[in-house]
């Protein structure tokens, strides 16, 4: 499970609650409480009795809904007459998704957070905004990024390739692709285990990403141990040069690969294809050429860069 997924699934109420708890005495007048809440910018406060026990909760809505309905005197009516009681609580260890569900089903909008049976904070609808923001960020990230390597995923690559194809066709500029994969990766997994394999994928992805210099260039995980780099407005010679830099840099990481038949360290093979998009060609054609070039790089002995030919 990724760190980002953990943030969304396991975030607890205590991480979003309002703390410390603000409270007022049950003998305070409506005017005094309203002034206090305004000065503290608090949407709700707890009410405590002379024994310092919390007996109820008062929200901003109570001042407009209950005060008006009861025609209370703002100056003389005490706050206990409009407070909601008893207090509803929720454990700070509850995950936010469950808290959200509980609030929706019960219709209760304000909860007191407890930890070891002590009141430690308050949870109200406004506390969910940060949580929702993280949820939206996660879903957006999930749509375009690979969960393991954190680089772009196949779906995003497909969208970018289609977009850049149209752009380069309009501008009559070259578009280049680099397809690459890790040599003898199955043997690597069999030798070192899948966790080590995942770590290797992350290192390779990070290295490729750091090698790219232009903002428009992107790398994506195409599938398994295979990656693809999109190079808008890049000549064939420039794509080949970058490919060789990537190949040498990965080899230079010196990640041990005992069962590789070509190198004691982990290596990659790369296929390069370039084209000036036109009405007579397609993104699929460019992708196919890069894939064929990668296949030929493996035939040539791997750990090399191979150029597609017309």
Give me a quick take on this structure:
This protein is α/β, with parallel strands linked by helices and about 300 residues long.
Percentage of residues in helical conformation:
40-55%
- As for the CATH topology of the largest domain, it is Alpha-Beta Plaits
Class of the largest domain, according to the CATH hierarchy?
Answer: Alpha Beta
Shape assignment: elongated
CATH superfamily assignment of the largest domain? Reverse transcriptase/Diguanylate cyclase domain
**Helix/strand/pairing class, anyone?**
alpha/beta
Strand content: 15-25%
- Could you say how many structural domains there are in total? 2
Low-confidence blocks of residues: 1-5
Strand order of the largest sheet: 8-9-7-10-11
Describe how the helices and strands are arranged.
Blueprint: H1 3-10, E1 23-25, H2 30-40, E2 44-48, E3 54-59, H3 60-70, E4 89-91, H4 96-106, E5 111-115, E6 118-123, H5 128-144, H6 154-171, E7 175-182, H7 185-192, H8 194-211, E8 218-223, E9 226-232, H9 236-252, E10 268-275, H10 283-299, E11 305-307
Parallel strand pairs: 1-2, 4-5, 10-11
Antiparallel strand pairs: 2-3, 5-6, 7-9, 7-10, 8-9
Helix pairs in contact: 1-5, 7-8, 8-9
């Amino acid at each position: 499970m990724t760190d980002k997924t953990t943030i969304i699934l396991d975030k607890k109420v205590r991480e979003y609650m309002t703390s410390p708890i603000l409270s007022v005495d049950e003998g305070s007048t409506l005017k005094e409480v309203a002034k206090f809440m305004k000065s503290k910018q608090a949407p709700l406060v707890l009410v405590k009795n002379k024994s310092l026990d919390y007996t109820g909760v008062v929200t901003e809505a109570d001042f407009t809904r209950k005060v008006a309905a009861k025609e209370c005197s703002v100056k003389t009516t005490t706050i206990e007459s409009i407070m909601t009681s008893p207090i509803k609580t929720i454990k700070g260890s509850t995950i936010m998704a469950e808290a959200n569900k509980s609030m929706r089903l019960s219709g209760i909008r304000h909860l007191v957070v407890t930890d070891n049976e002590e009141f430690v904070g308050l949870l109200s609808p406004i506390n969910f905004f940060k949580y929702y923001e993280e949820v939206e960020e996660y879903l957006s990230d999930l749509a375009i990024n690979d969960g393991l390597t954190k680089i772009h995923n196949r779906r995003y690559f497909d969208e970018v390739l289609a977009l850049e194809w149209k752009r380069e066709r309009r501008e009559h500029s070259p578009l280049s692709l680099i397809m690459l994969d890790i040599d003898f990766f199955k043997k690597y997994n069999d030798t070192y285990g899948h966790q080590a394999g995942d770590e290797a994928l992350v290192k390779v992805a990070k290295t490729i990403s750091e090698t790219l210099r232009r903002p428009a260039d992107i790398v994506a995980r195409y599938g398994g141990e295979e990656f693809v780099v999109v190079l808008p407005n890049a000549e064939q010679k420039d794509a080949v040069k970058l490919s060789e830099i990537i190949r040498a840099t990965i080899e230079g990481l010196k990640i041990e690969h005992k069962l590789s038949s070509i190198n004691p360290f982990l290596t990659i093979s790369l296929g390069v294809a370039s084209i000036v998009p036109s009405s007579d060609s397609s993104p699929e054609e460019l992708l196919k050429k890069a894939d064929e070039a990668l296949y030929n790089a493996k035939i040539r002995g791997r750990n090399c860069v191979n150029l597609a030919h017309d």
